Amino acid sequence: MTGAKRPYVICHMIPSLDGRIVTKGWKLSERAMGEYERTAETFDADAWMIGRISMEPYAGKAKVPARKSAEPIPRTDFIAKRDADSYAIALDPSGKLTWKSGSIDEEHVITILTEEVSDDYLAFLQSKGVSYLFGGKADLNLKKVLEKLRKEFGIKRLLLEGGGKINGSFLAADLIDELSILVAPIADGSVGTPSLFDAREGRGPVRQLKLLSAEPRKGDLVWLRYKLRK
């Protein structure tokens, strides 16, 4: 169990047998991909989180206009909506996602920024009804981000869904409580593509796991659940 200060974090992914996570070219069946969503639903999470690159297809493309006002916007969190049934969270430190709206399939959007983003971008987010939280001046403090998500939005269970660098950063910060992986019946064989955890060059932040369950699923998948030993 986590303390009440932050959500319980479940890293939920669908890697190949050799740990790769870029599914393009795998030709997985619709049944197999459906299993990913069905297993995710069993966690009854309040929110899901992914990185900027993974979020781009969901965010859409809109123009960020220049502001007419020269008055600076304070670097304080902006909460557009607190009472959503579910939240879609993007880690976007530099403020590059150009949101079409403040929701994805009725899930309220929260984006996580550093204080280095421009005033034009903050004004743009406010105009779209996108909530934003600051996670640090130049770099994100992930523990601080999680604590804000719990305090401001009441998020208790969060699905962390990649990419590899985001997962690796959470692993290195010891902020993952549970690992849920649907191992795809694929041997990818690629070199240099994102893997389940890409924390840093060289030796990574080794973590010990305790197996909770192993279950065959439709589409020749195997669902493995682990608790991270603290």
TrEMBL record:
Keyword match Heme: no
InterPro entries with a match to the protein in the record: DHFR-like_dom_sf, RibDG_C, Riboflavin_Biosynth_HTPR
Gene Ontology biological process terms, A to Z: riboflavin biosynthetic process
Pathways per UniProt: Cofactor biosynthesis; riboflavin biosynthesis
Domain Bacterial bifunctional deaminase-reductase C-terminal: 7-220
Pfam family, one: RibD_C
Superkingdom, taxonomy of origin: Bacteria
GO molecular function: 5-amino-6-(5-phosphoribosylamino)uracil reductase activity
Keywords: NADP, Oxidoreductase
The protein's name in its UniProt record: Deaminase reductase
Organism: Corallococcus macrosporus DSM 14697
